[in-house]
Automatic annotation (TrEMBL):
Keyword terms: Membrane, Transmembrane, Transmembrane helix
Domain of life of the source: Bacteria
Membrane in keyword set: yes
Transmembrane segments: 43-64, 71-89
Protein name, UniProt field: Uncharacterized protein
Length: 98
């Protein structure tokens, strides 16, 4: 029960970091996906990078507290779910029309 609660909490935190990094990009890392004379599709990767950095920090903290075998699988599930749902909700995708 406690593991499921932390899974949900981490999922929400990862989604917030992904959305915030996509809406307010601190690094301005963008990839042009499609460019035509009338529109340009761009992916802002800052939210994804911030979410992965947060995941690495959480795993390092779990390694320092010696909870790798118990906690890391739940954290990995949370980050994968947040990535899939965030990309489905099109976090980071921008269309510029001329």
């Amino acid at each position: 029960m406690k593991n499921f609660f932390f899974l949900c909490l981490q999922f929400v935190i990862f989604m917030i970091v992904f959305a915030a990094g996509s809406l307010f990009p601190p690094f301005h890392i963008t990839h042009v996906l499609t460019a035509t004379p009338s529109y340009t599709h761009v992916f802002v990767a800052d939210g994804l990078i911030l979410m992965i950095a947060l995941y690495v920090l959480i795993v390092i903290f779990q390694a320092m507290t010696k909870r790798l075998s118990r906690a890391v699988p739940w954290t990995t599930i949370a980050v994968v779910l947040a990535t899939i749902i965030g990309l489905y909700l099109k976090f980071g995708f921008i269309t510029h029309e001329l």
